[in-house]
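Methods — Computational structure assignment.
A single polypeptide chain was analysed. Its primary sequence is given first, followed by the predicted tertiary structure written as structure tokens.
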Amino acid sequence: MNAYHLAVMSVLSYAPFGAKPGFVESYKPSPPPYDAAGSIGHVLREQLARLEKPTQFDTASYHLLCEEVPYSKRLEVVPYDPARYPQQQEGSTPESVHFLHDKDTETQAFVTHNDQTILVSIRGTVGFRDWLRDFDARQISADGMEGQVHRGFYGGFLAVQKFLEPYLEDFYTRGQTILISGHSLGGAIALLVAQWLKTLPAAPKVILYTYGAPRAGTTAFVESARDLVHHRLINHNDPIPSVPFTWMDAEWKLALPGTVSLLASIGAPYAGVALLLGGLLNLKGHDYGHHGEQRHFMPRKRGGGSEASVLWQPGEAIEHMAGAELAAKLDLERDEVKRGNLLLQMAGVGHHSSNTGYARAALANLLRWNASLSRNGALFTEEELQALQPQLRGLEEYLSNWEAGSFQAFEKQVRARHDTRFYNMSKTERVQAYHGGVERARDEQMEQLAGLSRAQERLLQQAQQPVTPRCVFGDRANHEALPRLLSEWRQLADVKQAEQLAVELARTEEAFA
């Protein structure tokens, strides 16, 4: 349930606080009322605070599974009364307190709270400038953090840190849990924010949910943040969590082993796998690494959408596969603008979308897990289990069939693509690079195949682990009003339609053959 609600909050983070779309160019915080449907101010101040259940979040339609609560337990927006509050006479508004739109970094976030929780949601990538920051993969040291972090994401973190410090000073009571959500770029920034919060003298309890987030720091940073509770959700066909690739050189000038194996495989159907198998390394520092407990939305059939995905924990082998094709295209593209446009295109695909990709998948999974309670908590139906296994076997076959091309094929591609990374090498050096890349690829091939084998074992193991009411509804599992609220929620038209796709299709797996 938390995964669904925080996914919806991530969708909401893309909305303005009160103004209609187009406000970015001349943004200035405005006073209430906030009447634009789907805006952050409208959802928080005009609806939730007044016991009206919102149905629009940004431009998307969702329904929260929630109840009416006393005022102290509602998500709060500060009151607006300039005659009573002197700071509001000087221009302070609810929007300036609860909403961040930093013009310099184009970072956007909102924060709200009740007596038990502080909620922070950080927006993901929107435009070309955001992608330039995503792609600024240089590693830098961050104040108060171990290891190194992604320079592009760190700028966004600093903006959010400056925004949150006065809010926490005014509203944090030391008894609240801080829930943070972020999608895409917002997820990477959210990780840095969460780790910063964990190091504060007050040592608040922090729980992080990210959706399709790229890597934010080096393996040393990840290790230093190992105590942070982080639920990292990714879609099966979303390549963005693979950015920045662990090997990324910000200058794109290094000829690395994976580049060699890639150029020796052009024309074969396994070009993306070739780059994956190259075992590419960042030769100037530590590799970028992922933090958190990975949870993977996987469609029941190849090419299926998020509306009928199942959530499980396969390990990282499958995640690496999703980014291989994108990595290959980026490595071959020598023009920086075209490379940026390619990333923009990939960010716009449905599997990466906060709305059609992640929030829909989280809704479907909540409905599936609720349905599983009626079959003794089985995570998968027998049909789903039978449909997932061939996909894993297909990936295994894909990896097994990769073979490196000849040195002559490699040389031909270097000339055809004018790859200047090899121009200053003698033929002897190119031969050595070729054999070194192929050898590295073959070693990595065996390691990846072993990873897929482990993923198949995990699939069978997780099929035996029952889903309990607490898994689905957390500390609300025994709430006396839950059966009524759940029944009312499931009768809503949008939820009904999602349940049909998520549950009924599981009973007719022929559609996924």
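Note: Residues 427-463 form the longest helix (37 residues).
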